[in-house]
Please model this.
Amino acid sequence: DQQVKQNSPSLSVQEGRISILNCDYTNSMFDYFLWYKKYPAEGPTFLISISSIKDKNEDGRFTVFLNKSAKHLSLHIVPSQPGDSAVYFCASMTGANNLFFGTGTRLTVIP
Amino acid sequence: DAMVIQNPRYQVTQFGKPVTLSCSQTLNHNVMYWYQQKSSQAPKLLFHYYDKDFNNEADTPDNFQSRRPNTSFCFLDIRSPGLGDAAMYLCATSRASNQPQHFGDGTRLSIL
Model:
């Protein structure tokens, strides 16, 4: 049973515009949420995280929004750059160590 | 640079022939994890070590074992690989629970 879902397998965005990647989860016990970026032939790279006590966390061009009532989080990238083209994984965890991943969204930023 | 290093990057083994994948870290993190990722699927946690304490996920097959001889190294042993075990195996580390996990580049395992 997939507890973390990324319903869009791919997304294409023009360079300079905003990229919005979405993620839904089903387990109300999740209290920590992360986004990872993955280039081909490399492991996932940690990008940004948010605790369940917050609804927004910003780091440079990357902002993560959390809507606990909707069990939804999103990653905004502004402005999008060609180097942002990668697969983005959403992940969630409880206080334990198990990290539950979504299946990923492939972002293509078109120059 | 502090890193999580997985060797080899590509591993081919025969059906039923034991294989060991290795992971080392220079981050001095307490927790080390092994994930299995099959094509177009999310990474799935197999087990993790918190220091020397081993924690196995309930649905991890008995065929999969792990060893952590010291803080820096962790091994994944597959005793009798089947065709269904062909996958990418990812090692990760974290400083503690509820901290971001840092991943190696993975070992892609093929079974002949």
Chain A touches chain B at residues 2, 4, 31-32, 34, 36, 41-46, 49, 89, 93, 95-104 (CB under 8 Å). The two ends of chain A are 38 Å apart (CA to CA). Chain A has a mean pLDDT of 94. The longest strand of chain A covers residues 86-93.
